[in-house]
Write a structure and sequence with these properties.
Oligomer: single chain
Largest sheet: none
Helix content: over 70%
Number of strands: 0
Radius of gyration: 24 Å
Length: about 270
Amino acid sequence: MSEATAASGGGKKMSLTVKIMIAMGAGILVGVIFNSIDNTFINTQIVGGLFAMIGKMFVNALKMLVVPLVFFSLLGGVTGIGDIRVLGRVGTKSFLLYLTTTAIAIAVAIALATLIGPGKGFDIQGIEMVEVTAREAPTVWNVFAGIVPTNPIAAFANGEMLQVIFYTIVFGIAVLMLGAKSEQFIAGCEYMNDVMMKIVAIVMHFAPYGVFCLLAKIFSELGIGAVLDLAKYFFTVLLVLLLHALGTYSLMLKLLSGLNPITFLKNV
């Protein structure tokens, strides 16, 4: 065996997707075993302590990425267009496309939920019932008015995504209007977008451990029986997501651009 072959290990490196799938299976298995043992130390220190801590850290890390990732990627997209008139046309088309896909998603979800009935036959005995008072739904006018932030910093801090997106677009337009003065700033935004993608890669490197702890905690606390009761709901949601991603988007991609959806998905 040559040195190069020995150094390469003679095989391909396991992908992140495979690692996450293995972690999911291991988390479910460990959770079911811990649930059957019902040991105080395991429940308090391992499940309620270690697993809960790592799982929460992973979820918090994912939330940490959202706002800066949206800001720098969207700002890079706006400034990358270069022409405000082109930006207006692209923005209008994007908004109409968003409304269309949202309407289709809602219609498909309601239709499949009505057809499958994921909540039928669910046993609620033993579950503590808490009365919930829903907030009054805002009018459509207030929804649109709320897109404009009164305080951009607060919008970023609170994760108000529509306000963040609106402010970022306005900010990007202002950058474009300054012309040549903005060249270094635009280069800096592109650099920050690259930095954010590296941070995403770092966080996702720990995804298998986070997924393992989250699933192990859920199955340890609820047991496989309670989770199986929710399986119908889970698979209904999964089916709707797959139909929307692979059906709706693929069809629109073919009709609006002429691209082969399979080729597009492979490249993605």
